[in-house]
Input
Amino acid sequence: MDELLVVTTGGTIDKVYFDDKSDFQVGAPQIGRILEELGVAFRFEVIPILRKDSLHITGEDRELVRDTIAARSARHVLVTHGTDSMVATAQVLQAIPDRTIVMTGALNPARFRGSDAEFNIGCAVGAVQTLAPGVYIAMNGRIWHPDAVRKNVDANRFEAC
Output
């Protein structure tokens, strides 16, 4: 892999807690900072296209993600996305041929100690370099096909469906 295209859509991975509002809001993408701090040995480009909780991502938003990736020449793509509707977006991205696309996110914001964000990003980076073209989800230390996974909201993890 010469270069990794990173497309960000928001989600918990990028959430910030605002004390004055006692509220979480989606902030700036964290993945560029994380990849730089980890000292990765490849070039990457981060394209932030949305800053939404995935519960608010629409069909039009999914088409924007698909069109953004399809318009680029990168063969290796990592998408950060909220976990609640990640599977739906992954299924839309399956229409893009000849790309290895791995989606990941976090169950706790990347800015928080003990977040799963760095681990999930690391799994996704390894997956995007080694898997055959297709669309995959990297969460909870596993790589999933979007048609065979769901988020178990009660257990707060991804599992086979």
